[in-house]
Amino acid sequence: MTTLTISKMTLFGRDNIRVYGERPSSIAEFIHHSVETYPDKTAVSSEQGDLTYREFERCSKNLAAYLQNELHIRKGDRVASLIGNSLEFPIVCYACAMIGATMVPVNTKLSKEEIAYILNHSGARTILHQEPLKQKITDTPHLESHHEITGLIRKVARANLVNLRETTVEETDPAYILYTSGTTGRPKGAVISHINVIHSVMNFKNIFDSDESLSTVIAVPMFHVTGLVGQLLHQFYNGGTVYSMERYQNEAYIDLVLRNKINFLFNVPTIFIMMSTNRKFLENDFGFVRKVAYGGAPIYRQTYDTMKQAFPNAELHNAYGSTETTSPATLMPSAYDESKVRSCGRPVPVADIKIMNENGEELPAGHTGELYIRGPMVVEGYWDNEEANLKNFTDGYWHSGDLGQIDEEGFVYILDRKKDMINRGGEKIFSIEVEDVLKAHPEINEAAVVGEPDSVFGERVKAFIVSPTLNETSIEAIRSYCLERLAKFKVPESIVFLDELPRNAAGKILKTALKNKGGSSC
After folding, report:
1. 419 pLDDT higher than 90
2. Of 264, 253, 316, 306, nearest in space to 288 by CA
3. The last residue of a domain, from among 136, 169, 202
4. What domain count does the chain have?
5. Could you say which of 127, 259, 360, 475 is the most buried, measured as most Cβ atoms within 10 Å of its Cβ?
6. What pLDDT does 202 receive?
C-alpha cells in the first residue's frame, strides 16, 4: 500500500473530513491523464469492438460537443442513460464528465413506471438509450428529447463535432445520480460528486496497489456503483483495460478471462460460486490472476477456500460499501491472517467508521451496532429528498442500516442488515450466522434466512435452500445438522426449497421478496 498525504477540509458543510492532499480535480482530468499516458492502449473492449484510450477520448469529445452545441446541455443539467454494459456506456460517462453534466444511469431492468419516476424526479433534460429499450421510455412530459446511442455516436463521429467549449468543473459538482433500489417506497437518488469518485478510485489504487497492467471483465451492471466506480472508473484511473460483458454468462465469462488472461476479477460472491460449478473453470489454470475482489454479499468460508485454490497467485480482497459511499468504505488489505476471512477489511484511509447503538451512542470494539460512515467518499445526500437526508445522515455520518462490529485490530465485520435481524422471543438472531451453517452443508449450494411472523415469539427462523439433491424429505436431517452447530432457538423452524434465490441486478439476494414468498415446510 502506497502512503498518501492526508489533510482535512470542510466538505458539504462537514468539518474535518480527511482527504488525500494530492488528487485530481475531476473525473475528466484523471481519464485524460490516462489518455495522454497510454494513448494506444486498449481502454474498452466488447463484442462490438475495441477502443484505444485515444479513440475513446475522441468518441467522447464528439458526443460531449453534440450534447453541448446541439442539445444545449449545460453544467449541472441531468443527462439520463438507459444503456447496459457496452462500448457506449463509458463514452456517455466521459462525455458528461467533460461538460459538467450530471449523468443519471438508469437500471435497464426496471419497469416503464419505475423508469418514468426516475426521469421525472431527476429532472433529466434528455435520455440516451439503446434501441431495444426505447419502448420503456413513457410518461415523461419534462423530457426534452431522447436519442438512440449507437446511431448518435456514429452520427457525431461523421460530423466530427470537436468544437467543445471548456467547462470548469469543481470537485464538489455532481457527477452522477444513482438511484438506490429501496425495499420500501420510492428509490432515492444518491448524488455522487467528482470528489466522491476521486477518493474511491484512489482508495482502490492505494490498497490494491493497482496499475496500468491490470485488466478486468465487467459482468455486473455498469449502472450500479461497483461496475461504474469499482471497475470502470478505477481502471480508467489506472490506465488499465476494461472488457465489457452485456450480461453475465458463466462459460462465456470464463472463456473471456482465459482468452485474455484477465488478471483482476471483481464480482459478487454469487458469480464465483457459479464459476466453481463449471468444468472449464475446474480444469484450467488461473495462475495469471493477480487480484480477486468481492463484495455485495457475505462470503462463505467454502467459497473463499474455492477461490484460494482456483487463484493460487491472487490476493483476495473483501470489500464493503454502498452507493452512498461511492463503493468502498472498507477494503481487505493485501496480507491478513486467515482468521479474518469473514471480515470485510479495515476502513479505507480517509474513512471514519463507528458502531452506534439504538440510542445514538458509540460502542467500543467487539460490540454490535449499526455502522455509521463518514468521509470524502460519502455522498452529500439524496436528490430532492430532504426527508431522507434528515433520516439517513447525522453530523456527516451516513447511517448504513448494517449491523456489525469492529475488532481490536480495526477489522470490520458485517453481521446483518438491521432490518433483517430476527427477534425470536427476545433472542436476537443474525441471519448470516444461520446461513453460514447451512452453506457449509455439502449438499446445499445456497441458503438465505429471514424472519417469519409468529403469533407466539414474534418471529421465527425461516430458511430458503437451493440444493441439487435435497428436498422436503430432508428437512428433519437438515434441522438435526443445524442443531449440532447452533443454539436450538436459531435452528430454522420452516424450510423451503427453491430452484434459485431471487436477486437484483447487482446480484444481491432480495430478502424482501423471500419474506413475501408463500410456502413453508414444518
Report:
1. no
2. 264
3. 169
4. 2
5. 127
6. 98
C-alpha cell at 150: 449507437
Coil/strand/helix, residue 367:
coil
Residue 82 sits in a domain whose CATH number is 3.40.50.980
Q: What number of H helices and E strands is found in the chain?
A: 16, 27
d(C-alpha 232, C-alpha 423), whole Å: 40
Whether the pTM exceeds 0.85: the reply is yes
Which single residue is written with the C-alpha cell 470502470? 232
Report which of 56, 472, 518 is spatially closest to residue 244, judged by C-alpha positions. 56
Measured distance CA(272)–CA(291) in Å, rounded: 13
CA 48/CA 270 separation, integer angstroms? 27
Decide if 162 is inside a domain: yes
Position 137 in a domain: yes
State the distance between the two ends of the chain, measured CA to CA, in whole angstroms: 51
Owning domain of residue 459:
429-515
Those residues whose C-beta lies under 8 Å from the C-beta of residue 91, and which sit 6 or more positions away, are 56, 59, 60, 63, 153
Sequence-separated (6 or more) residues with CB below 8 Å from residue 357 = 363, 367, 369, 370
Average pLDDT over residues 365-394: 97
316, 304 Cβ separation under 8 angstroms: yes
* Sequence-ordered list of residues with C-beta below 8 angstroms from that of 135, at least 6 positions apart, any chain: none
Dihedral sign for Cα atoms in the order 483, 477, 422, 418:
positive
User: For the domain that residue 469 is a member of, what is the CATH number?
Assistant: 3.30.300.30
Classified as helix, coil or strand, 48 is coil
